[in-house]
Design brief:
Length: 260
């Protein structure tokens, strides 16, 4: 079974800067990490490969530094990584992102299953996986909490729909997004880190993808307009109170701040 796992490199801290003109995160010089939800997607793919055999390709769209997260996926057990990187892709919303990923999947070629994390910690939309499935014209299941059966031409999964739990059988190829804690992710292998070269990650630009529509990429291809985005403000003021009426003092603070 040929499996593609979509991963993303996200800021490693909530203290990030925002471009005041474009409204997108400034990622250069910011500490980064592999999106935590994607660790569960990778582990789900590893478990499926253990049952059905095949190969796993980790796919990501991002700047050149995102190759580091793809290498981490390889150290964990992926067979290779593919990075879609081009200035044309910068500033993409979920629709533009899913379009570029769709072009990347078509560049990779034959696949049976795409696995995504439920969401990312920077965007938190949980929309890219389902939109990618729509772009590819394949079935999908979101919020998968267990993988029940993997057949030669189908997969059966259980999904948490908040108000109900549903079991769904889909024909391959298809896409699933997995929920947090579906499995406990394994740690990267030191031996694989030692044995793996940087050639394990292949980078493709827009020109490499062939036939990609520039009007559907990056800011130009993003119908979602961000009105304002900013990191949360932090306040360091604090007050210690040793009086006889702490509840009264707290009420006064809330009243003075017009929180009541």
């Amino acid at each position: 079974m040929n499996i593609i796992v979509c991963v993303k490199q996200v800021p490693g801290t909530s203290n990030v800067e925002v471009d005041p003109v474009t409204g997108v995160l400034k990622r250069d010089g910011t500490s980064v990490k592999l999106n935590p939800y994607d660790l569960f997607a990778l582990e789900a793919a590893f478990r499926i490969r253990e049952k059905a055999g095949g190969s796993i390709t980790a796919l990501s769209m991002g700047p050149g530094q995102a190759a580091g997260s793809l290498l981490e996926a390889v150290y964990m057990g992926a067979d290779r990584g593919v990075l879609l990187t081009d200035r044309l892709f910068a500033g993409a919303d979920v629709q533009a992102t899913s379009y570029v990923l769709k072009c990347g999947v078509e560049k990779i070629g034959d696949f049976d299953l795409i696995v995504c994390g439920k969401q990312t910690t920077d965007g938190d939309t949980a929309q890219v996986g389902p939109e990618l499935a729509e772009q590819l014209g394949i079935e999908h299941a979101a919020g998968v909490v267990s993988i029940d059966e993997v057949g030669e031409d189908s997969i059966t999964v259980t999904l948490d729909l908040d108000s109900a739990v549903q079991t769904q059988k889909m024909k391959l190829p298809c896409l699933i997004t997995v929920a947090k804690d579906i499995f406990t992710p394994r740690l990267p292998s030191f031996r694989r880190r030692f044995e793996t070269s940087s050639d394990a990650v292949t980078a493709y630009t827009a020109a490499d993808l062939g036939g990609i529509d520039p009007s559907r990429c990056g800011l130009k291809g993003s119908p979602t307009q961000v009105e304002r985005i900013f990191p949360p403000e932090t306040r360091g003021e604090r007050e210690f109170y040793d009086g006889d009426d702490p509840a009264g003092r707290l009420f006064s603070i809330l009243s003075e701040g017009r929180y009541l």
